[in-house]
Amino acid sequence: AQKVTQAQTEISVVEKEDVTLDCVYETRDTTYYLFWYKQPPSGELVFLIRRNSFDEQNEISGRYSWNFQKSTSSFNFTITASQVVDSAVYFCAHGSSNTGKLIFGQGTTLQVKP
Amino acid sequence: DARVTQTPRHKVTEMGQEVTMRCQPILGHNTVFWYRQTMMQGLELLAYFRNRAPLDDSGMPKDRFSAEMPDATLATLKIQPSEPRDSAVYFCASGLRRGTNPDTQYFGPGTRLTVL
Questions:
Q1: What residue of A is the nearest CA neighbor of B106?
Q2: Hey, are the CB atoms on B107 and A44 less than 8 Å from each other?
């Protein structure tokens, strides 16, 4: 069965610091997808990124970057020069090609202090 | 800017009452998911529809919960009778599934349910 572990329950940083959110997954699927979602204080879950298991290239989008390493079953998320608006709960998820369902990690609460 | 909409946004009810939550998926999406979020359990998948057909409702307590898609623009989640332990935020998400690739799910704002 699939499982997603986000070991960091809460992280607190000061604005402008870089921060990395860890995500480790377990899967028996040969083909799968990985996702990150952001849940700001308003409560809505916002899609950030999707990667498929064949593409291990790192991705950068502005201050956000993602590091996918199949060898360690990890899909880590780094925010560079964090801002107060980055304060949110961040969820990593595994998507199965067999079922189409997403399995979410427990989330990491990021607090960015001014 | 297409979004998933959910109504009501907040619902307070008394134990034993029926609760109906509604979701309008993004136009053109063919999958709909219902999730429940609590502090203790995190995000749990309750039900999953594709092309309006229920594919998986194994996460849903069958005795009191029911999920339907009367048409492509409306999904409903009903609890009857409601209990205090049902208090949670209920999210609807929709996606466009092509072939075997899991779709990216886009979430609605959620319905915060409080059962007294």
A1: A47
A2: yes
Task: Give the bridge partners for A63, in sequence order.
Answer: none
Give the bridge partners for B115, in sequence order. Answer: B13
- Which residue among A50, A91, A100 sits closest to B31, beta carbon to beta carbon? A100
Q: Give pLDDT tens digits for A13-35.
A: 999 999 999 999 999 988 899 99
Percent of chain A with pLDDT over 90: 80
**Inter-residue contact B82 to B16 (CB < 8 Å):** yes
Summarised one tens digit per residue, pLDDT across range A85-95 is 999 999 999 99
In this complex, the residue of A43, A91, A97 whose CB is nearest that of residue B102 is A97
Rounded Cα–Cα distance for residues A50 and A73 (Å): 15
Distance (Å, whole) CA B80 – CA B86? 11
